[in-house]
Amino acid sequence: MTWSFFASLTLQAAAPPPTLDLPVACRLPERCVIQKLVDHAPGPERQDARCGMLTTDGHKGTDIRLRRYSDMAGPPVPVLAAAAGRVARVRDGVADADVRQTGPEAVGERQAGNAVVIEHPGGWETQYSHLRQGSVLVRPGQVVEAGAPVGAVGMSGLAEFPHLHFELRRAGGQAIDPFTGTAADERVACGAPGRPLWRDAAGSRQWVRPNEIVAVGFADRADAVEAARRATLPLPLAPDPAALVGWADVAGLIDGTVERLELIGPEGRPVVTRERRLERGSLSWFSFAGRPRPAGGWPAGEYRLRYLLNLNGDTRTAEAAVRIGGPTTP
C-alpha cells in the first residue's frame, strides 16, 4: 500500500473502524490476562461491557497484563500493531517501575510511559502504552503492517503491574471499546455480544474470564507476601522458614464466589485450609493464608499450594509447589 493511497483514505471521516489483531504476541488467557476493560458507566460509576467491575472509572482502553511481575525478567513480550497504518508519535526512555513504590510525582506528565501512536485510514488511531524501556522499534512517519512489532510489554509510566494499555480512538479522540464497537461513554446491554472489532471476533469472547487467577506463590512470612507478589525475580524461601504463607492474585473477582486456599504438606496432610464466601467483587483481589514454623521445624519435603474459586459450579484452580524443611539448628 503506497502512502499516497493511505493519505487519501484518511480523508474519509465516515470510514469504518479497522479490524484489529491482538496487539501482543501472547496467548490469552494462558500466558497473559486482560486486567481491565473500557468503562461504559457515565459519571463516577464504573462498569465494563459485561456489566462487571473489570475496569476503573473513566478507563478508555484494554489492559493486557503479564501474569507475574517476574515475567519482566524474562524474554520481552512483543507488542504488535493491531492494524496497518502510519506511526504518528513515539516515546521511549521512561524507566519501568511500580508507581505505587515510586509515587505518581515521579511519573509527572508521562502517564502513558513509553508509548506508540499509530494513525489508521479514516481518522482512526491506536495507542500502545506502558512499553518496556528501550523496546520501541518504530519511528514517526514509518508505515507499518498489521502484526509488525512496535515494542514490548513493560511497566513504565502510571503502571502498577507489567501490561499493555491498548486504546482505539476515532477522529476527535473518542475512545471505542474493541469488544463491542461502541463508544467508551455509551451504556451497553449487559452481556450483549455487540460487534467486536477483533479479527478473531468469536475467539475474543473467551479472552475475558471472570475470577481469573493471575498467579499464585509462596512467602516465608506474612509481611513478605506483597514483596513476593511484586518481585521482578522469584524470591527464594529460607530452608526452614519462620512461616509458610501461600498467596493468590485474582483479576475480576465476582460477588458471591467461594474461595478455598490449601497448603498441603509432604505426606499429603493439610497444613492450612481456609474457605470462605466472598460477598463483594473486586477488580483486583489478593488473598493469602499461612502458619508459623512448627516446633522442631518443617518436615522436609514438597509443600503444595492449591487455590480454588467456585462461582455456581464454575471453578478456577491454580497450584504451586516448593521444597523446604528440616530440623532447626539449636
From TrEMBL:
Keyword Signal: yes
Residue ranges of every copy of the M23ase beta-sheet core domain listed in the record: 59-178
Superkingdom of origin organism: Bacteria
Keywords from the named record: Hydrolase, Signal
GO molecular function: hydrolase activity
Database matches in InterPro entries: Cell_wall_metabolism_enzyme, Dup_hybrid_motif, M23ase_b-sheet_dom
CDD domains recorded: M23_peptidase
Protein name, per record: Murein DD-endopeptidase MepM/ murein hydrolase activator NlpD
